[in-house]
Amino acid sequence: MNQDTWNYLFISLSFALYIGIAVKSRAKSTSEFYTAGGGVSPFANGMATAADWMSAATFISMAGLISIKGYDGSAYLMGWTGGFVLLTVLMVPYLRKFGKSTVPDFIGDRFYSRTARLVAVVCAIFICMTYIMGQMRGVGVVFSQLFPALDITGGVLVGGAIVFFYAGLGGMRGITYTQVAQYCVMAFAYTLPAIFISMALTGNVIPQLGFVGSAVAEGGGAPVPLIEKLNVMNQELGFEKYTDGSFSKLNMFCLTAVLMAGTAGLPHVIVRFFTVKDVKSVRTSACWTLAFIAVIYLTAPTIGAFARVNLIQNLHNTSYEQVPSWFKDFEQNRQMAWVDKNGDGKIQYFGPKHGENDGAGGVFVGKPVFRESGEKGEFGQPLYANEIAAGSNELYFGNDIMVMANPHMGGLPQWVIALLMAGCIAAALSTAAGLLLVLSTSISHDLLKNILKPDLTDKQEVSAARMASFVALAVAVYFGINPPSEFIAKTVAFAFGLAASSFFPTLLLGIFMKTMSGVGAISGMIAGIVFTLSYIIYFQFLGGRADELLFGITPEGIGLLGMLLNFLVAIVVNRFTAKPPQEVQDMVERIRLPHDAGEATEH
Fold first, then answer.
1. Is 9 exposed, middle or buried (0-12, 13-18, 19+ CB in 10 A)?
2. Residue 258, class by beta-carbon neighbours within 10 Å (0-12 exposed, 13-18 middle, 19+ buried)?
3. Greater pLDDT, 171 or 354
4. Half-sphere exposure of 155 (CA within 13 A, CB side)
5. Which residues make beta-bridge pairs with 338?
6. What is the 3-state secondary structure (H, E, C) of 241-303?
7. For the purposes of burial, counting CB atoms within 10 Å of the CB of 290, is it exposed (0-12), middle (13-18) or buried (19 or more)?
8. Taking a C-beta distance cutoff of 8 angstroms, is the pair 592, 94 a contact?
9. Angle at 304 between CA 85 and CA 551, to 5 degrees
10. Do residues 562 and 532 lie in contact, with contact meaning Cβ atoms separated by under 8 Å?
11. Comparing C-alpha atoms, which of 312, 325, 310, 263 is closest to residue 290?
12. Picking from 20-24, 38-42, 213-217, 336-340, which range would have the lowest pLDDT averaged per residue?
């Protein structure tokens, strides 16, 4: 069988499995639609949560960022991992004990205000819509690679239709068991290529040990660890050392902190812990989730490093007539491009420190450049060959293609490549489905049922949720085709900034500060998300310049200042407003107390 046949076989089987599970697990009540009836086992929920968490940004884009940026890309790894610990320690046990089905539910009741609920709904919509844009973009990238007849736009449309079918049909019950299957696909699809490539490059079957411990030959000299070899290769080509970073310390700190705090405020991850039966099950489920996430997150740095080594060894200084066939396939699909600037017929891959370079470092700036001047690809604004003629770099590609290109570069079997493609799609679809459910429930349950039309029946509420899913997905598909950033992880980072600046401080204050008033919480949420969203819009859409960045902080990391602003405004406003009613303060005490612990001590 050829590669296309293997791809179609694996994708068809996985789709049949997902849709079959969704049909069999179809939600029949609002409880099953929103929280799967609250009866999911901790083991299954841990696997489903891991799948929900490991989005296209993790599966496709994070390793690509680490591959290209080295140390700078590790901010995503550290932030997302540390954030999940914050989430499981500071948030979900208390929110699960409260007994509601959504984050706006908790905020509306805790701050005894329909306005607070409405603001929370608006925040949830902004967060989830921004997040799902990146997922739909990931679906488009994968489908365009799988099916040459499809461009990224067509891929986004096909993926959107599939997500709507099984998310809208099955609700949380269907999504949960579908995500269990998707996690299994992702885990095998991510780890097997890493094992094969580690054996080929380092001779070590364990990728992590191969990356940092196995000695490999370096230019005829004494063998050195692969990570050191990569440092040398990067510097020789004009890039920063792989283990060094170009980000300022402040920007690196802000980005990592935003990803951590944003994780702890993500509504689609929080709601996953509402599907188990009690608080003890929440903690058990969290332990399983961390274990399942570790499988992917401990492998991502090795995949990024292996991909960079293979890219340089396969393409740099290679005659175009002798390049592997996979490069021409990626070039045809507009995922990679070569511009022969010096006319020698060879591909040169250089970084910004190699003479007078254009500074792109091999990564697409705008649309990919093809040999035919003026031809447009799929990456934002056009960049023509004559605009970069002065640079020495000749190779262009997108960060998000590195994971998919890695098994091709490593010469892996066709079935392994097909499995990886199935895993890429599973990653994007699993998170998109969870986000779509949060969007639909925010509109149907929190907005319609609890604010606009309290007399909705269960059947009407589920129907409204499915209609809201369709509208939300239509908007997400549009922005998947026209995203705020071409890199999936960067788009997703914006969602984390919005979550960090809105939900994280509000939830934390709502749980641990029983005297926090509704007016204070509402003021903080509005201040935080308006500041963060305005900053992102200005620099991503309105032409903001690098020299205008506040303290040099990029839009991905600005959510930290938005979070601090939220805390500041909420606490200051709270000092000048009435305390919450006594029954609300008592409710907060009950949430914080372990079962049968007795009365809390006043502080």
1. middle
2. buried
3. 354
4. 26
5. 395
6. CCCCCCCCHHHHHHHHHHHHHHHCCCHHHHHHHHHCCCHHHHHHHHHHHHHHHHHHHCCHHHH
7. middle
8. yes
9. 65
10. yes
11. 263
12. 213-217
Q: CA 92, CA 83: separation in Å to the nearest integer?
A: 12
> Of 399, 424, 403, which Cα lies nearest the Cα of 412?
403
Q: Give the residue from 94, 86, 87 showing the smallest Cα distance to 594.
A: 94
Q: Strand pairing of 336-338 and 346-347?
A: unpaired
| pLDDT tens-digit map of 390-439 | 467 788 887 777 888 888 888 888 888 888 888 887 777 777 777 777 77
Tokens of 150: 């499809």
DSSP, res 340:
-
Write phi, then psi, for 461 (nearest 5 degrees): -65, -45
Q: 224: part of which helix (H) or strand (E)?
A: strand 224-225
Cα-Cα-Cα-Cα dihedral of 175, 176, 182, 184, to 10°?
A: -170
Other C-beta atoms within 10 Å of 515: how many? 13
Q: For residue 348, which amino acid is it?
A: Q
C-alpha pair distances (Å), 357 with each of 237, 245, 309, 585: 11, 19, 21, 61
CA 19, CA 271: separation in Å to the nearest integer?
22
Q: Rounded to the nearest 10 degrees, how much is the dihedral formed by the CA atoms of 584, 283, 56, 166? A: -80
Tokens of 570: 């909420």
Residue 267 contacts residue 124 (beta carbons within 8 Å): yes
Query: How far is it, in rounded angstroms, from Cα 428 to Cα 128?
Result: 14
Helix (H, G, I), strand (E, B) or coil at 338: strand
Which amino acid is present at 183? Y
H/E stretch holding 181 reads helix 152-202
Q: How many CB atoms lie within 10 A of CB 229?
A: 21
Are 497 and 530 in contact by the 8 Å Cβ rule? The answer is no
Tell me the one-letter amino acid at 591: I
Q: Decide: helix, strand or coil at residue 215.
A: strand
Give the tens place of pLDDT for each residue, 437-491: 777 777 777 777 777 777 777 777 777 777 877 887 788 788 777 766 555 666 7
Domains of the chain: 3-214+238-244+251-307+409-592 (1.20.1730.10), 308-408 (no CATH)
Q: List, for residues 219-274, the tens digit of each pLDDT value.
A: 555 677 888 888 888 888 888 888 886 777 888 899 899 989 988 888 877 877 77
What pLDDT digit, counting tens, does each position of 543-574 carry? Answer: 778 778 888 888 888 999 999 999 999 999 99
> In angstroms, rounded to a whole number, what is the distance separating the alpha carbons of residues 146 and 155?
9
Cα separation of 525 and 500, whole Å? 10
Q: Are 178 and 433 in contact (CB under 8 A)?
A: yes
Q: Which of 28-37, 114-123, 461-470 has the highest mean pLDDT?
A: 114-123
CA dihedral (31, 107, 87, 260) positive or negative = positive
For the chain, counts of helices (H) and of strands (E) = 24, 6
493 phi-psi bin (left φ>0, alpha ψ -120 to 50, beta other): alpha
Contact indicator for 305, 67 with CB cutoff of 8 Å? yes
∠ CA 483-489-492, nearest 5°, is: 65
Residue 422 sits at the vertex; the CA angle it makes with 417 and 425, to the nearest 5 degrees, is 125
Task: Give 92's Cβ-side CA count (13 Å radius).
Answer: 33
C-beta of residue 349 within 8 angstroms of C-beta of residue 392: no
Alpha carbon distance 409, 421 (integer Å)? 15
